[in-house]
């Protein structure tokens, strides 16, 4: 028998990645992943990168890309020099690096409940003790966590967005208790209704420890596997070393493409069109939900992002519902995968991948099976 790491005991498969494989089958209507719509790739320029991009590059990322990211961060309320911006191989890598930076077995990590399931997967792998918190309530009265992982803007899975007061109070609570504030912000540009989107890290006082990260997956292309982080001075160099040990640097061809995209004349107009199409998809999905689950379930229309979180009646078993829907080729993610401790039944539905017609069909199936399950 090979002698493998004890950490593997806490390594669980990702429920969503396994379901995405099932979703590849023709005719499956999938609400399970977080995939951008295929039409959002239509206008992207894919001219070939220069040959020098085939060479090794710096761990922190291409300097012009880091500068472009720093300018953008300043424009949204987070002042951070380009020297403290690092390009990531997808923002999922930032979660891995932050976990390596802070978590030893038993270390307390505060998370929202429900929370992004692939972050839970990483934190559990490193042996974290997960401590759920409610935004806006007094936090960690007894033992402060070492790390607080938050997605305040269009959260995955709930789609919720924190108020300005919650943002500034949370930054203060982290700084006051020496908690590393880790803000994950991949959905901020997919905004459909007005709400405060200022980064919580932008409220962090001098001397506080924070990591902010974003992604190019949701507004550009997830296949490029590119994201970025910015961090407080005391953490940045350590994060660079951790990345060095992990993959040397992010893919330079992808970095070149993203830089072209960020500096393209039509970028803002393209983003407006993509966001406009998603807003229409969200509204159509909302209307389909009302038609098929209106008197059975409840939800808040998400002001941005890619998901609806739907609360089900208390007597419903999420997995039994999924099993019935799967028989009819409809897929969604049961809420338990996002939970840190048990809660009322709920499901996460992605509205960006299926066309409105397919979404209507799929939600009709979920409504029928929900009724059948309760009769
Ligand atoms: C909250 C959150 N963080 C991080 C990621 C990972 O994104 P990326 O494609 O940048 O690795 C996702 C992807 O769905 C996400 O929802």
Can you walk through the features of this model?
Helices cover 37% and strands 14% of the residues. It has 375 residues and is α/β, with parallel strands linked by helices. The strands form three sheets. A seven-stranded mixed β-sheet has the order 2-8-7-6-5-3-4, with helices on both faces. Strands 9-10-13-12 form a four-stranded antiparallel β-sheet. β5 (147-150), α5 and β6 form a beta-alpha-beta unit. α3 runs parallel beside α4 (117-125) and α8 (267-293) packs parallel to α10 (356-374). The relative contact order is 0.17. The model has no long low-confidence stretch (mean pLDDT 93). The structure holds pyridoxal-5'-phosphate. Pyridoxal-5'-phosphate (PLP) is lined by residues 34, 90-92, 116, 151, 156, 184, 186, 215, 217, 222, 227.
């Amino acid at each position: 028998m090979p002698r493998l790491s004890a950490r593997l005991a806490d390594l669980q498969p990702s429920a969503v990645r396994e379901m995405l494989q099932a979703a590849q089958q023709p005719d499956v209507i999938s609400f399970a992943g977080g995939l951008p719509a295929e039409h959002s790739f239509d206008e992207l320029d894919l001219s070939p990168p220069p040959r020098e991009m085939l060479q090794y590059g710096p761990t922190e990322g291409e300097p012009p890309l880091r500068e472009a990211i720093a300018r953008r961060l300043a424009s949204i309320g987070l002042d951070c020099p380009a020297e403290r911006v690092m390009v990531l191989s997808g923002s999922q890598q930032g979660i891995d690096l932050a976990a390596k930076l802070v978590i030893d077995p038993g270390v307390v990590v505060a998370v929202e409940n429900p929370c992004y399931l692939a972050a839970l997967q990483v934190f559990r792998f490193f042996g974290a003790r997960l401590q759920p918190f409610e935004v806006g309530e007094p936090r960690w009265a007894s033992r402060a966590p070492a790390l607080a992982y938050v997605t305040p803007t269009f959260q995955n899975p709930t789609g919720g967005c924190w108020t300005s007061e919650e943002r500034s109070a949370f930054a203060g609570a982290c700084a006051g208790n020496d908690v590393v504030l880790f803000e994950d912000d991949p959905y901020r540009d997919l905004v459909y209704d007005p709400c405060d989107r200022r980064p919580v890290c932008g409220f962090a006082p001098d001397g506080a420890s924070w990591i902010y990260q974003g992604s190019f997956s949701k507004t550009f292309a997830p296949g490029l596997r590119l994201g970025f982080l910015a961090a407080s001075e005391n953490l940045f160099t350590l994060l660079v070393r951790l990345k060095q040990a992990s993959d040397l640097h992010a893919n330079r061809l992808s970095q070149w493409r993203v830089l072209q995209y960020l500096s393209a004349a039509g970028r803002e107009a393209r983003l407006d069109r993509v966001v406009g199409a998603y807003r229409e998809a969200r509204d159509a999905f909302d209307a389909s939900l009302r038609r098929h689950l209106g008197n059975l379930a409840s939800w808040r229309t998400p002001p941005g992002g890619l998901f609806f979180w739907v609360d089900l009646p208390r007597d419903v078993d999420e997995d039994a519902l999924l099993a019935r829907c799967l028989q009819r080729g409809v897929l969604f993610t049961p809420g338990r995968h996002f939970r840190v401790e048990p809660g009322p039944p709920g499901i996460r539905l992605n509205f960006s991948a299926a066309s409105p017609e397919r979404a209507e069909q799929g939600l009709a199936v979920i409504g029928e099976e929900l009724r059948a399950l309760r009769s």
